[in-house]
Inverse folding.
């Protein structure tokens, strides 16, 4: 199978997606139950509701409970599919008795939302925000934060850091970025779906993306990490982050797509499988216009299952690749470019 050398490059250059109409098949009462990542939950909810409405005899339900819980449900075969921002690692794939088809279905940015009265714009340098999340910077008026925000009235107030309480793919991607740009963070906290955050009363835990969003909104002086769509939906403020090139960049569809332009799918298949490996990460992208934290998020299907469920799953994927991509931007996600859509469409035929 031909691989795209640079997944988002084509989309940035031509600004187009593959336009294919979706014609749903008719089914006799097929139900697809899924669980997992909260990162894509707003757009998945819309996709699944609309697909179920348009596809006679099929209903798709999805429970937002975190990537780690979704992967475990998938391994335990208590769901028909799962959602994960961390994809699956080789060890998890080996535990899946019916095989694995991993499909990137949308992409998004991880943003830092904060609660500081009177602060409409906040810039956080790349040597500052890792310090906040490893507990080294504890006050909002720290000299490093103040130097990046001249003229901003930063309070002499402790920073409350809100992190995930559940096993989270969003956390996996966020800590992967922090571990890449800060060696001390890598050694002390590290990358993981449930890392060892500092033991401090300034660190507060909340479940899922919506839990962090709500906790930050309710906690003056707090900061937390969420998917951009949640910030857009709730009108939560987001910090401008300094990228690898030294530019402070706000999240958005263009800066997010630029971040994923360097992503490359690996050659070869998933371990012990004939299914192509569509796991790709960019933890510290370069470019003046690039937002520094962006990721794909994956749907996970069994390689082998009942025929009617396999057919419904393939139709669901096709719907998400066509009609679904049209609403990605307005919901705070990054539409997949045509090259990636074609690759995912081809690999989805492995769902049998």
């Amino acid at each position: 199978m031909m691989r795209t050398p640079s997944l988002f490059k084509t989309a940035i250059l031509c600004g187009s997606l593959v336009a294919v109409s979706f014609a749903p098949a008719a089914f006799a009462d097929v139900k697809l139950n899924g669980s997992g990542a909260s990162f894509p939950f707003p757009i998945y909810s819309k996709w699944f509701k609309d697909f179920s409405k348009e596809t006679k005899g099929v209903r798709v339900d999805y429970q937002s409970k975190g990537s780690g819980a979704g992967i475990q449900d998938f391994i335990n075969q208590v769901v028909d599919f799962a959602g994960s921002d961390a994809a699956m690692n080789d060890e998890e794939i080996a535990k899946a008795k019916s095989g694995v088809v991993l499909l990137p279905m949308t992409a998004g940015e991880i943003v830092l939302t904060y609660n500081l009265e009177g602060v409409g714009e906040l810039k956080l340098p790349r040597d500052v925000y890792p310090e906040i999340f490893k507990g080294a910077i504890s006050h909002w008026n720290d000299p490093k934060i103040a130097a990046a925000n001249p003229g901003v009235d930063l309070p002499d107030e402790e920073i409350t850091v809100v992190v995930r309480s559940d096993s989270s793919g969003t956390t996996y991607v966020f800590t992967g970025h922090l571990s890449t740009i800060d060696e001390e963070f890598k050694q002390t906290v590290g990358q993981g779906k449930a890392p060892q955050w500092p033991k401090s009363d300034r660190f507060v835990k909340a479940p899922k993306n919506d839990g962090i969003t709500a906790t930050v909104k309710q906690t003056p002086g707090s900061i937390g990490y969420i998917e951009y769509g949640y910030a857009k939906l709730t009108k939560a403020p987001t910090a401008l982050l300094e990228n690898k090139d030294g530019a402070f960049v706000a999240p958005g569809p263009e800066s997010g797509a630029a971040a994923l332009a360097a992503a490359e799918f690996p050659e070869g298949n998933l371990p012990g499988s004939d299914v192509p490996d569509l796991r790709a990460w960019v933890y510290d992208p370069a470019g003046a216009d690039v937002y520094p934290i962006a990721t794909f998020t994956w749907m996970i299907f069994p390689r082998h299952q009942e025929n009617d469920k396999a057919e419904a799953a393939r139709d669901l994927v096709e719907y998400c690749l066509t009609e679904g991509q049209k609403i990605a931007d307005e919901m705070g996600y990054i539409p997949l470019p045509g090259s990636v859509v074609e690759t995912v469409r081809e690999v989805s035929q492995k769902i049998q």
Q: What stands out?
A: Residues 21 and 93 are 33 Å apart (CA to CA). The two ends are 18 Å apart (CA to CA). The longest strand covers residues 101-114. Residues 1-5, 10-21 have pLDDT under 50 and may be disordered.
